[in-house]
Every structure is written in C-alpha cells, then in structure tokens.
Amino acid sequence: TILPAIILLFIAFPSLRLLYLLDEINQPLITLKTIGHQWYWSYEYSDFMNIEFDAYMIPTNELNMNNFRLLDVDNRVILPMNSQIRILVTAADVIHSWTIPALGVKVDGTPGRLNQTNFFMNRPGLFYGQCSEICGANHSFMPIVIESIPTNIFIKWIMNFNN
Predict the structure, then answer these.
(1) What are the boundaries of each domain within the chain?
(2) Which pTM does this prediction carry?
(3) Where is the Cytochrome oxidase subunit II copper A binding domain (predicted)?
(4) Are the C-beta atoms of residues 135 and 143 closer than 8 Å to each other?
C-alpha cells in the first residue's frame, strides 16, 4: 500500500502546481466586477471612474425583432476582444452563478465573498448566459450578455460613456 501512495503523490503534486498556475491571472487588461441581485446583475468597470450600471432582462412585450426572448438585457457588458479580462463575482443577497457557456466561464457569486476568474475573447460578437444557480423564483430571468468589440471601438465607448 505504501508504493501506490507514493506513486499517487508523485502524480498529485505536479498536477496541483499546474492547477494553481492556470488559475493565476497575469496582468489583466480590464477588471469587471459583477454583483448578483435578485433578479438582475450590476457591473462595475473597476479600472475606470464611475462606470457602473445594472442589466435587467428585457420584458417580452418590449422586445424588438432582433432580440432573444429571456436572453437579452437592456445594458450589455462591453469588453474588448484579444484582451485578458478578469471578472470579480459576488452577490448582494443569495448565491448566484455567473455563467457564459460559450466562453467556458462559470463563477459562483456568494454574499460576502469575492470570486475571480479570467477569460480571453478572440472574436467579436455577442455571448449569452444566465444565472445557473437556483437562487429564487425568478433565477432563470437573470440573463447575461457580453458584447465583444475591437479595442479601438471599446476605447471610444469608454470615453463616451459618461457623456
């Protein structure tokens, strides 16, 4: 029994080191703080002054022809493509889960705790997600929409945000 335990330790230690290194975020370009509320998301661009907003689901009776029912929001998260993005996720009331399947991102937002992850978008477009935690009666009505745009357009958007 000793020999298999030693073999498992030789396998486990390098794997744990790799897991730690994969989770470490090296010099993110932008940090986005996400706060889950019942039943909407709040976003804060931590690297810029006074850029924060709430994102509510668009009600079915207010949808345009090019919107997705139960997936579109009134304020999309705008992020630059080809940039390392850090997401800080927390919650104000109950446990939420900030999930974007197309990006491979799922982070739990827990009240009193700040969780972080990172991702890299290499193409422009819209990425849809939802709260994937059963956080109450309307948890399925907490959509997430990220719009990935070129960096020069993102800079113009940031400059014009407060105007």
Answers:
(1) 24-162
(2) 0.82
(3) 27-160
(4) no
